[in-house]
Amino acid sequence: MLSTKINTQLQKQIKEEFKKAEKEKKENERKLEKEKKENEKKLEKEKKENNKKLEKKKKENGKKLEKEKKENNKKLENERKLEKERKENEKKLEKEKKANEKKMEKEKKENEKKMEKEKKLEKKLEKEKKENNKKLENERKLEKENKDNKNNHVDDIISLISNELIFNIPVFRKDIIKTKLSNKKDKKMENNKYVVKKISDLCSNAELINLNFNKCIKGYHLVNNHCINETMWEDINAVIFESLGINIYSKSDGNHMSGMDISCSLGRISNKSAKYSNNKKSIDISSYRLTTVCSEKKCGTPIEIISEINKRKNFDYYSFIVRDENTISQIVSYDWLLIPSNHLILEPSSYIWEPTIGKRGKNKDAQVGWNTNTINGCKMTITFSMSSQLWIHIEMNEEIKQFIIASSVVENKPRYNYIDLHDNLTNI
Asked: Which pTM does this prediction carry?
């Protein structure tokens, strides 16, 4: 009985524990189900949020990709354009290269022709130089014979005439009475009375004179854009003389002392530069400063002024380079004049000298310089306030134009600099 009772209790206890376990199991299942549903809801919610984020990100990436695509398309378009331009430039360069090669070939042939022509000219010049030397020798013999045969030669008479003007200041001029000549040789000398020696005596080839003048002027402007001044003209003039077979004995090399600049076999040369004015009808040449003989403090006299000018005139020729500039087209034209220094218009004693009187300000009614009459449109002036510098105004009349021995027209656009010259002409 007791064991039966114990078994019954145990069974009862087991049943209760089973029921309790069953109940706990169901409770746990409900909890798990509930947690599962909550987790599913949570996961669903997270899934939706993640989907939204992904969608948003997808849209942003799509926009970014679209933008990058457009930029890449632009880059590709630019690259295509650059490639097209590069090909066009290559074609253009190739075309230019061929054109330049043709041009260089043409220039080479032309230069060869020029060199050939120059060689012929040099041979001709050498031949003419020998012929001229023979002529000079014959002329010296004739001159010696003529001197022995002269009986009635009359020297030039120079008379100094002093007059008084309204200011009671003496004026000065020189009258030349022509020499009576006794033979044909002297008549020839009369026609060239101003000329010490002609350039044609040493170089009769006028074409070569003009050719070499042009070469020097154009060569200078290959590098320089400023016009030729007196200092540069001295060097250029010496180069031209040497190219014509005229020997250079000495140069002033830019020395500012008045008088001779070049000593050569043609004679003694004074170089001057000037600019055309009044539509190429006249030029003005600056000359000596004469403060030692005339100034505001001491006006001097015409005789003193003329004596001082002639004392400094230690040369036979004026060599003028005269230019006319066109600033718009950048074209410069040059004329080379070689005038004997004792020519009538360059001789101070040829003129009548008068005081220049001030018309206004502190110098009113006081002497401020000197001026002369005009001879064939030419005259001389001195202004005390300008360091008493002598100015020679020359009218370009037909007589003066006869002294133009060469001309050149050049475009004032340099093509090289000194580095280019070094690189092209040396192997250093």
From this structure: 0.55
